[in-house]
Amino acid sequence: MNEDNSKTYIEGEVKNYGYNGMTLSESRALNLSQNAFSSALDWKSSKVTDGKVGYIGTVGNTISMMVRDADNSKFSMRDQATREYLNIGYAVGTYLSLKRVPAPVSAGVNTIADERFEEFKNREVPPKTKEQIEKDNEKYVREKIEESLD
Fold it and tell me: Which of 1, 68, 123, 139 lies 20 to 30 A from 90 at CA?
């Protein structure tokens, strides 16, 4: 790869991963601040309810992740479904594991875990180009039609 091609590739990757024109660094900073805010909500809700409800921020953050993963310009229908299933599993797992942990610890663990989970999703089900999305959507619809006919 020559220098011009690598520069074009890097610019393309930044466009794929950024939110509405944000750079990759800016979108990571936004994710981190959202995760920290949701963890703070978890901690505060736990304090107010004497430790009985410590997952308000986790629920809000899961909804936020699901909205981001429903982006038709980055993910095909199949990828959106996969990412949504991962989000639901992650939210349930987070709730079950962190409800036994003291709220301040939960807040810190949740912030780190959310960031790592986003990295995992982007590695396993990465954003696609418009052409890749169209091809995958056509294939996915064809498969679903064939399944319904069987």
Answer: 139
Neighbour-count burial for 38-57, b at 16+ CB within 10 Å, e otherwise:
bbebbbebbeeeeeeebbbb
CA triple 51-111-89, angle to 5 deg: 80
Question: Within 13 A of 14's CA, how many CA atoms are on the CB side?
Answer: 12
Report yes or no: 143 and 150 within 8 Å, Cβ to Cβ. no
Only one residue has tokens 């912030």, namely 111
Q: At 115, phi and psi to the nearest 5?
A: -65, -45
- pTM above threshold 0.70: no
Residue 40 in contact with residue 57, Cβ under 8 Å?
A: yes
Which helix (H) or strand (E) element contains residue 98? helix 77-98
- Distance set, CA 70 to CA 1, 35, 39, 78, 87 (Å): 33, 19, 23, 11, 11
Whether the CB-CB separation of 77 and 119 falls below 8 Å is answered with no
Residue 20, sorted as left (phi over 0), alpha (psi -120 to 50) or beta, turns out to be left
